[in-house]
Fold this sequence. Notes:
rod-shaped; 8 helices; alpha/beta
Amino acid sequence: MAGDSTVNFNLLHRTCKVVVLLCFLHISVTVVFYVRSLDIRFAFVQNQQSHNAVTQPNQARNTEFASKTKAKEVSVGVQQQEAKPPEPKPEQKTEAPVKKLEKCPETSPLLVGPLRVEFNIPVNMEQIKKDNPNLQPGGRFKPKDCEARQKVAIIIPFRKRDEHLKYWLYYLHPILQRQQLDYGVYVINQDDNEIFNRAKLLNVGYVEALKEYDYECFVFSDVDLIPMDDRNTYKCFSQPRHLSVSMDKFGFRLPYNQYFGGVSSMSKQQYLKINGFPNNYWGWGGEDDDIYNRLASKGMSISRPSGEVGKCRMIRHNRDKQNEPNPQRFDRIAHTRETMYKDGINSLSYKVVKIEKFDLFTKITVDVGKP
């Protein structure tokens, strides 16, 4: 009995040892696997963190690149939008170009020929203005249908001749317009009671007219002479022109071949060639002959219209006060060739007192001094 118990005890003891050994072995295996699993998890975490550290900069770079790309696309879009051609504007009506006028004919087709000139009918400035609606202020006119062949300044030496001036304006404005001239009328008024100086006033008119317009021709006219034929054109020719050829005062005949008084015309070149007119003829007479001598000394000749076309009438009047005959005129005429280079447009002196622009003429009042 005792032997059997010992045997059973030993068997139980061995069995317990085996069980304990198996349990220890199981625990050891479990611990090993647990530790290995911790290493795997730690490595995984490290790998994941390393992967994230690499990925984030790449993502930032990708984001930055994407932003730049988008900005570039926006910039290109803006540039393309700016470069986009403007939308066509609605069609605008363009005015037809102004057609250049042709030159007026050599001989105006508006001329009527011989005229009846009378001084016994009353005239007034308002009526003259109504009769000449195309005049511009200052007595200026140019044709509308053609380009005038010459720009003409009409110079009138003047003092206290208002009634004569009315007749001159009444007759001459229609004539000059029919002659298709681009013209202006300048009345040069001597502003004092000193001795009258016709030639110096003509010089003043030349200078003052050129201050306003590029005139190329100058007609010098006494205020009391009216042409009786509109074919006697108030313009310039290849030679200085004497326009008042046959006056009623002289029985419609030329008093002498050298006569150059009354109404005459000169181009700018002709006028400057003789140094203009003398300034030292105070009183009546002599300056016309001096001018003729100047022209002859420069090789120029006097051109004239025919006696019939060159007819004109003078308004009768008494001699003006302070315009008595010049007693020195004959001596001065004899020395024209010596004096013309120092007495003329190059020695002209005067003072403008007033310039007035009337409807029918420009009045320039001047102080020309005294002898």
